[in-house]
């Protein structure tokens, strides 16, 4: 599982405009604008996205009058590619990955905040390293261009350091976690469940987490811009289903956890251990996030911040256009 990468779509999205006309979700075989349409919705392994499985198994999409073909991806990157090339109507993905797709030419619209990472992304250090400031001169493994790379830079900045002050060791997240446990590196940036692997090193601990930077790592439901334009009724029904699903989960917590844990391939106890590190967003939290502002809690501010990171890390040549990225009207239309 390789979730939350900011840089893997460059080649795909650069040719998205060429392949979209021939794809299932953006091509000539699509229903006419306004006609009923099936929503092909992708998601992958992250606690904030497993509620979609609950929605499917409990028939909540159908209750809202929308036909949804739910597609689970073992590879998160594959789900990003599928949306960028028009083979999905919508996907659950990070803000950073959405910006990367847009940089490559894809036209996508965020209609819902699924969650914020509030601890499940971590900078984990070996014994003897107790603060971020202690990372100076140390070997730190992180997958370049990921949100955990972004988290590392945020943490370094708060400690008065930059990436130049550490010995960065670019590694895939799973490899980095493994290298940390064998002493190959002194610290690692990772997300759950690879945090569990890293913390298997005796005496290791998280010295910074996404909980320290509220709003820095948001996850969303993202539609192709064309689908939003042509089929707003279906988009509205899917957004309403999300909040209906959260209500069902609240009323049936044990049954919901069993459904989500089974899909995740972990025990119910293991799944519960990830709950605190992922904050599922209510309608009220969605409304607050979509409100323009100048804090990390505001999506427009966070999008600009991540775009600047992408340019500074040389992941893109120029900041992606943000016009039309955020569309709050579907959340606003859901009854409280």
From TrEMBL:
Pfam families registered for this protein in UniProt: NMT1_2 (PF13379)
CDD domains linked: PBP2_SsuA_like_6
A GO cellular component entry from the record: periplasmic space
PANTHER family to which the protein is assigned, alphabetical: ALIPHATIC SULFONATES-BINDING PROTEIN-RELATED (PTHR30024), TAURINE-BINDING PERIPLASMIC PROTEIN (PTHR30024:SF47)
NCBIfam families in UniProt: SsuA_fam (TIGR01728)
Record gene name: ssuA
Entry keyword Signal: yes
Protein name as catalogued: Sulfonate ABC transporter substrate-binding protein
GO molecular function, one term: ATPase-coupled transmembrane transporter activity
Family per record: Belongs to the bacterial solute-binding protein SsuA/TauA family.
SUPFAM superfamilies assigned to the protein according to its UniProt record, in alphabetical order: Periplasmic binding protein-like II
Localization terms from the record: Periplasm
Record keywords, A-Z: Signal
Residues annotated as signal peptide: 1-24
Keyword Signal: yes
